Amino acid sequence: MSQSVRAPRFGASVHPDASVHPTAIIDGDVSIGPGTVVGPGCIILGTLGPVRIGTGCTLVARAIVNGPVTIGDGNVLYPNACIGFAPQEADFDPQSAGAGCIIGNRNTFREGVTVHRGTDARPTQLGDSNYWMTNTHLGHGGSVGSHCIFASACVIAAHVEVGDRVIIGGCTAIHQFVRLGRGSFVSGAIGLGLDLPPWFMATGNNLAASVNLVGLRRSGATAEDVHDVRWCFKTVYRSGGTPQQAVPALLERASRPAVAECLAFITSTTRGICHGLGRAGRGTGGAAAAKD
Q: In this structure, how many other beta carbons lie within 10 angstroms of the beta carbon of residue 284?
């Protein structure tokens, strides 16, 4: 790839070991780190807020980055990926910098991915080693952990919290302010408007019907952790009561890490958690603990 002039361009700071294609446009307060490659037709705009791109990133072609945004090391942006533009909020001034985006290391953004900047004091934040497939979207103020996979055309609305090792299937929609617990799995072509606890699987609209055993084992979970997650699922959804009525049973085993994680998630929900096939009807009494 051809290198641009090594001197700063349009007020930007380009490391001597970076490679910028002559057709790329770099404007404003932009800093590009060593080993980063900016391909043909890319646009990096630091005119509303600063853009900081780390070491060894690759902007393949026609990717667009709009500040304020900080991008860590080793990230890859494929053609037409757009990072840091104004949120899709009718009363937000697109000329306002907002809180921007903070992106970790080694993330991959395939063709057409959009990540919008935060509107208030909370930036949109991504961790490390996430894989965003074609035409996926993360709304403003969202928070994503690390080692997640987002299949093509899944859309994540504003202020959603996604834990580590979450997988979301294609053509799936996640409502504003929903939380997806660590290691949870969301099937394709469904919608969630309720929280999904850690390591549980959503297989229908707001329906948690199974445990992500494959994800647990791939994460290195112990046999005891797997057993405890399965016990939590049975206690929450198969004990004859509502999820909140299962809390006393969870409290009895709160010294076990997997149970404590599930308990903390359920007791902190504001939207409610996904229901199960065996959820209790109105007026159902307290739930007994599920048997091992």
A: 12
